[in-house]
User: Fold this.
Amino acid sequence: MKVRTMGRHLREGSRNITRNGWMSFASMSSVAITLFILGVFLLLALNVNHIANVVERQVEIRVFVKQGVEKVEVDKLAEKLKDFSQVESVTFIPKEEGLENFKKSFGDKAYWFEGLEKENPLSDEFVVKTKDPVETEMVAERIKNLPYVESVNYAKDMIKKLFTITTMIRNVGIGFIVALAFTAMFLIANTIKLTIVARRREIEIMKLVGATNSFIRWPFFIEGLLMGGLGSVVPILLLLLGYRYLIDLVQVDLNLYFLDLLPLNPLAWQLSVLLMGIGAFIGVWGSMMSVRRFLKV
Amino acid sequence: MKVRTMGRHLREGSRNITRNGWMSFASMSSVAITLFILGVFLLLALNVNHIANVVERQVEIRVFVKQGVEKVEVDKLAEKLKDFSQVESVTFIPKEEGLENFKKSFGDKAYWFEGLEKENPLSDEFVVKTKDPVETEMVAERIKNLPYVESVNYAKDMIKKLFTITTMIRNVGIGFIVALAFTAMFLIANTIKLTIVARRREIEIMKLVGATNSFIRWPFFIEGLLMGGLGSVVPILLLLLGYRYLIDLVQVDLNLYFLDLLPLNPLAWQLSVLLMGIGAFIGVWGSMMSVRRFLKV
Amino acid sequence: MIEMLDVWKTYPNGTNALEGINVKIEKGEFVYVVGPSGAGKSTFIKLMYREEKPTKGTILLNGFNISKLKERQIPKVRRSIGVVFQDYKLLPKMNVYENVAFAMEVVEATKKQTKPRVLEMLELVKLKNKLRSYPSELSGGEQQRVSIARALVNSPGTIIADEPTGNLDPETSWEIMRIFEEINLRGTTVVMATHNREIVNTLRKRVIAIEGGRIARDQQRGEYGYEG
Amino acid sequence: MIEMLDVWKTYPNGTNALEGINVKIEKGEFVYVVGPSGAGKSTFIKLMYREEKPTKGTILLNGFNISKLKERQIPKVRRSIGVVFQDYKLLPKMNVYENVAFAMEVVEATKKQTKPRVLEMLELVKLKNKLRSYPSELSGGEQQRVSIARALVNSPGTIIADEPTGNLDPETSWEIMRIFEEINLRGTTVVMATHNREIVNTLRKRVIAIEGGRIARDQQRGEYGYEG
Ligand SMILES: Nc1ncnc2c1ncn2[C@@H]1O[C@H](COP(=O)(O)OP(=O)(O)OP(=O)(O)O)[C@@H](O)[C@H]1O
Ligand SMILES: Nc1ncnc2c1ncn2[C@@H]1O[C@H](COP(=O)(O)OP(=O)(O)OP(=O)(O)O)[C@@H](O)[C@H]1O
Ligand SMILES: [Mg+2]
Ligand SMILES: [Mg+2]
Assistant:
């Protein structure tokens, strides 16, 4: 193909958008809306996943040391705990601090336990966090067998339940996103097809005048690319602005510190590239698929 | 309009769907997919709302009775609590039972508190639930001023946070659903418009042959109604079957008792009627809107 | 009766198609409209059934001022006229029978009336063997004849035909002309734009010659021709 | 050179449009195809540039068997032929200039070549004042002339015209015929389906008469007419 012909295709492709004014607009707004929905749910799913991660991170193993163990041995135990490759952090809570915390949790009823200081019934305690929360159980079981360890507490049932929930949430999220992405592709391709079917006669005429298939296809390729690409600009802008506003709202105004949203920065780029990519790809794909049906003249 | 003309419109309207085979199919599948998404999120939102309600129901007011109050006075207080119009249930927990529960919550550490039985430091206690959890604070404040009430405990901060979250979830849910509903309407109307624009020449010809606007409109009305209505059948079936499967899965197989889903029965009808209504309404609306543009010949 | 008083038509793109047309066509007349390509014949005809509105001037149809007609009344006017369109204007998704029957459905005729009448018309234009064919499955001349059948099916008081024989062979053209002449004898007004010199010169009728948007000649029992 | 050997055409709906056509048109010939409406003239012509495929039989175009042509080679064949379609087949969203220029873009002509050539063709069919008009803004005859200009613009070796004067007045028809005659004298093959008795009988050429899908007559310097 000659260069000037490529130039002609680019020109024709973009002019087709204005030529078919209303139809292009309808098509692009469908693309825009569908991508917007997809984007919203993508942001939602990513953040839910993030929050699930944060929550999982809270999981910890409480290791109780036997009563009356020497300070040196306790330090050795600390070293051993830190040596586990799966362990991220180890915090030591002396039994005095433990009792203090225990009493604090009773607020104004703390006076009930005044007598306990003399013969502190608690043990020294380590709080262990694993790098990957899923390894908690395995690590806990191994700690249990270390010397001087009296017992290990890691809320076995609670953790199981938590992981069931977070896994479920993640799976549902992925399921939704995949389903939505296919739906979006289908809807976009469908609208673009409808606009092209309306031009089947034009395609037939072009072929009868001697145009090759690729000569006819190129402008449609450009048109699909532009419609999908342009159709993704508005939703991308809306999503980014909306998300920035949401972050501000949640973290500054409402002070909902427990809602730990993903930061705007890498997300913005990823989202933009992804949505524009989907838009452009499906634009081209839908366009090519429907032109093909009318090329057999 | 004569009866036979109405018959003719019904016939034409339904035949148009087969006449425009591919286009009708594209249009109806867009309707179906959009309604399906809407339906999924409707189910999701309704269930989230339901779970939020269940969680809110857990909110209770603990009313502590002054030490050494006579049994008769305590019964009187119980009566008074039950007399509040906002109160749903009142449960009495004698201080002995209270201590038992307290010790039980410490498991194998219960021996710490052996000495407490002799001079039980706890009070008799009422657990009060309000009909509407939002009224908890107000009711609690009023209970506080009743005679023989030592103190009232209703986890003020926790409740505030809980309501912030549930309200937020509800609002986000409603926001999503409304946005999705409008989006669905827009998308459906858009596709239907695209199929009708392709027939603008036909409409013009009909007018030139002497057809009145309403004569042209009726078959399009029927067509829009059928396309929207038929387009909603598949998603309704899928949603109902899927939801039934989900309920089985959650409650029988996974035993996720804490996931309290809404029962299928009234929901199924409501959802079907709603989705079919939306489909039919927007089908007609989109169809009428786009025909109108071409009637000015 | 059709009357035009100082009618001008300028299309939205600025083309002056008609410039000051004054003409009166009585009930029961047979009129040829002739003129070179692009002279304004179709525009002149389109004004009569209000496919186009005049930019200026008055058009009276059976006494009604159709340039001032309300939207709602247009269908009534169009039903009183049978139009053969230059580009046929058949409904692409209806077959031959349905296309002709459509004109009768519009006036809410009964099915009993419709069927024999439609078949009669299709017999007349020799298309009875093409009842179930769609417009895209017809030859050019066959499409034109469907358009003629549709124009005649409601026995309108006025027939307006825009080059109804453009895609017909001479024999078929003459058959169509004989039909037009016959319904004209029974009192129907016929207005027909044509390029067919043979027909105009043989079947002598009133000739209105349009050139450059103006009436160049208006002559009873005239010949084909428009230059001066 | 166009040659048909025992060509049959049955449309998908069962219509037998052509039944056993045998014909040979030499390079540089001028041929009229005549016959009543629905006889099969357009079908005969459509087979030549492969808008339709024959149901049976062989068609040779400049030696190539176009009934066995590969999909990819069809555009090449079509570019060697200029076609005036009975229903014009203009691109509705392109204006007059663009419609004619499209045929040159297809063969990847430079802009420098395109512009003067397109303007020359539009001058020839007297449409230079309608360059920027869209097909929907043209009269029937004007659309037909755009179709003619497009067919001629690439100076193809063969011109195939399906009733190219159906919507033209006699004067314009004759101008078009003079153009056809001139390019024919310069060696272009011309095949033209027509109903115009006057033209056929005046500008005497070879006449192929088709009736009921069969060649009823094939005569050099023949007259219009097909019965027997
Ligand atoms: N819709 C339109 N918009 C703009 N210009 C138009 C439109 N329709 C017709 N014209 C122009 O108005 C003039 C008259 O057109 P009209 O169709 O009345 O011609 P005509 O006499 O019927 O010609 P023909 O014999 O070729 O059919 C022409 O120059 C044409 O280009
Ligand atoms: N696409 C099609 N499908 C089915 N039948 C068709 C199709 N095209 C044409 N026919 C039929 O084939 C026969 C020949 O049609 P064709 O168009 O070749 O006639 P024609 O000689 O060109 O007539 P005209 O002078 O009216 O244009 C006609 O009976 C017509 O109804
Ligand atoms: Mg005209
Ligand atoms: Mg033909």
